[in-house]
Design brief:
The longest helix has 27 residues, at 29-55. The protein is mostly helical and 105 residues long. The radius of gyration is 15 Å and the shape is elongated. It has one domain. It is 77% helix and 0% strand. Helix 1 (3-11) packs across helix 3 and helix 3 (29-55) runs antiparallel to helix 4 (60-74). The protein is built from 5 helices and no strands. The chain has helices at 3-11, 13-16, 29-55, 60-74, 79-104.
Length: 105
């Protein structure tokens, strides 16, 4: 997966992702932590991609491609599936954040 495609996915993951609502209000702590962890990792992916686009570090494209391809493979996924999972995690995280904010009111 080339950096340009990775950057496009990272920049538009909210637009590309079909809306997925949290089906239940009561999630286990493990489910919440899993979503938060994945969302954080996806944020790092986006930040690395944006940094490389702005700085154009020599070898940076290859590093990012290799790092995230390896991370996806470690999880038994293709880079494309990893990006799709990022999209779903971010949507779930945003839904949980909104739900938590509503409960505090």
């Amino acid at each position: 997966m080339n950096l340009r495609l990775l950057t496009i996915y990272a920049a538009f993951w909210r637009v590309l992702c079909p809306s997925t609502a949290i089906a239940k209000e009561e999630l286990s702590m493990q489910e919440i932590l899993s979503v938060a962890k994945m969302t954080g990792a996806c944020g790092i992916l986006q930040a690395q991609s944006a940094f490389q686009v702005n700085t154009k570090l020599e070898g940076g494209d290859k590093f990012i491609e290799r790092f995230w391809s390896t991370e996806a493979a470690r999880l038994g996924k293709t880079p494309h599936q990893y990006i799709k999972d990022c999209q779903a995690s971010i949507t779930a995280y945003e839904s949980m954040w909104k739900l938590a904010s509503e409960k505090e009111k």
